[in-house]
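Inputs:
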Amino acid sequence: MLLKVENLTKRFGGLVAVSDVSFGIEKGEIIGIFGPNGSGKTTLLNLLAGLLPPTAGRVFWKGQDIAGARPNVIASMGVIKTFQNPQLFSELSVFEHVMIASFLAFTRMKDHSRLSSFLSPGRGEATLRTRAEKALTLCRLQDSLTKPAAELSYGEEKMLGVAMAMMCEPELLLLDEPASGLGNDEIQNLENVLRDLRAHGTTLCIIDHKVAFLAKFADQAIALQQGCKIAEGRPNDVLADPGVVKAYLGRSHHA
Amino acid sequence: MKTLLFLIPLYLLPLAVQSDVVLTILIFTFVLGILAIGFNIVFGGAGQLTMFHAAAFGIGSYVTFLSMLRFAIPFWLGFLVAVVIVIIVSIVIGWICFKFRLKEFYFAVVTLAFAELCRLVVLNWTSVTNGTLGMLVLEKPTIWIPGGGVVRIEQTVPWYFLTLICLTGVLIFSVLLTRSWIGRNFSAIRLNEDLAQTLGINTFRYKLLAFTISNVIAAFAGALYGFYTGYIEPSYLAVAQSLDAIAMVLLGGVSTILGPVVGALVLTSLPHLIELPAEMRVAVYGMILILVILLMRRGIVGLAAGLLKGRVNAA
């Protein structure tokens, strides 16, 4: 098991945002986490990525407890998170963004030392540049390489976030509502990118409140409500679960 | 690297200009420019508003001089002792500040407090530093010239070349740094520290590195300054010295390569160019500073780059 979450809890004062959640993610699978707004999805991802320290519970990555570790430590282990509202280095160009994001890939390259790259900045960059261009093409940003990120549309900003995450060579990619705010055409493109990632062996954990988007992809689904896990299993089974139906529609659904 | 070609005319200048005043102003420009480059690395690069650079500047001059006296070693070895001490001090102070996640004004205030602490130590440790009176520095740096043997740097023209060579070295270092992975990670921290962390950048380590590098460069400027003026006093570590370097960087252009040097040139030469009674001069000087900073957000270099780009686009 790649990632194992045990009794994870996060309290903000009196509010329990994530309550005693446990689940596991197997290598290569796509897991969808859904639930209404405020059900604790984003908090859960932030706990996994180290952006928040958990109040209680444990997170095991390949058997090692990473709960409470700093975000950069978790990222360097191969767990990368994208943001629901795109986070950018706004004044830099699109290409500079992906180059910053290739830092982890760079530290993993063994054929040259960091000192030599300091003395001649060109070395080692060629490989990364090719990869950056590939990631940007896949995310349909190939025509905006020199554009400052501040000039991108919302959808493009989100895809830039995905491109940056790809450059980090994640083993597990945590996506926070990747499809929200995207047009139909952009969602189609996002689906292609996620399929490509999966084909290359990346494990994906996607949260979204759009059930339809997740149901198409996910191998496993988890439903959250008010911070608690209320259902888990094959996506269609979870969607048919009476508790989930009730949480979404506010009452049980009599067909 | 091409931007550094502007240094070539400076190497030829003493052939045309023999005026001691002009060369002296340029020597001060080069030395204070080095201090400003140091500040620009930590502020313009990694976005950390430090107020410690004057203290590093002062420690650089005091430790270099005192270790020369105590151990009877040449200037450069004395400076090496200063580097070691500044690195240790930077790591301790940086570690405290960054572990407590101090940012912006909180970081500025705490580094200022540490700088004042250093100044008070220098001021009150009279048996070693001679307190308020400061110390007369009669020693001079020596360099080895192929064919000429070991030479003491005493006259204006040798000082001009020594400080220009040092400035060139520091500028080349800052260009390499900015373009390297380290520089890229610095800008990631300045623009969005949380995002930088989720991309796997150890922001604590890189902030500490930026702070340390900047202080070592400031110490270098301090050592040159003390030995050029021949006098070392506690005011080298004072807030005013830090503010001067900040003004130079803002005026010249934050996050630009040449900005700190241009700012240093303007601020060192301006007082000599305004031919007014002393009290008026300070007022006019202050006003120019305020106007320039208000009207040119990216400083002189930023404005010039913008104009050049505009002309290219129009053509």
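The mean pLDDT of chain A is 86. Flag for discussion at group meeting.
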